[in-house]
Design brief:
The structure holds two protein chains of two kinds.
Chain A lengths: L2 E4 L3 E3 L5 E8 L8 E6 L5 E7 L6 E3 L7 E6 L4 E6 L8 E7 L3 E2 L3 E5 L2
Parallel strand pairs in A: 2-11
Antiparallel strand pairs in A: 1-3, 3-8, 4-5, 4-9, 5-6, 7-8, 9-10, 9-11
Chain B lengths: L3 E2 L4 E4 L5 E7 L7 E6 L6 E5 L3 E2 L7 E6 L2 E6 L9 E6 L6 E2 L3 E5 L1
Parallel strand pairs in B: 2-11
Antiparallel strand pairs in B: 1-3, 3-8, 4-5, 4-9, 5-6, 7-8, 9-10, 9-11
Classes of the chains: A mainly beta, B mainly beta.
Amino acid sequence: EVHLVQSGAEVKRPGSTVKISCKISGYTFPDYYMHWVQQAPGKGLEWMGQLDPESGEIKYGERFQGRVTITADTSTDTAYMELSSLTSEDTAMYYCSGGFHHWGQGTLVTVSS
Amino acid sequence: AIQLTQSPSSLSASVGDRVTIPCRATQGIGHSLAWYQQRPGKPPKLLIYDASTLENGVPSRFSGSGSGTDFTLTISSLQPEDFATYYCQQFNTYPLTFGGGTKVEIK
């Protein structure tokens, strides 16, 4: 059975950085691109970026370009998403997803002074 | 970036109703479209990809159609567990984009 387990909720100060992890099990890491998706409270879904685990190629969404870094540790089948220069507009649920077929449970990030 | 429009943003329907949810792209995307269902407090769930291919384990009352710029998700007979928000997504061109969502509510 496939599982994507994300790290726990975070509370961050404006201007700081958050790093979320996503550990996969039940499939081989290179099988799917790893995507990250943001969902602000009461709002829709926004694609943040993706990592191709085989080639290492990364693509980022326009709104997050320059602030987001997606990485992976293939030895532990864990992906990471780091978002910097946080503002209150980054308060949201963040999801990792394997090829959009499999999803993590989400990580709530609250940005507040 | 390609924009996806889902209108209406919400609709009311009854159990047993046939429901159609449209999605329109600002430029042609072939068949590179997916549909997701999201219940409150849960991650999205993939229903349909490549415009009309049913994801494993998804009930056959869900179907997708369309190509180019106009797409439709159809629920043939609405069940109680289908009351949720539905999103379309294009994966033809980067950046990948989602529609704004259509919430299906109980009439």
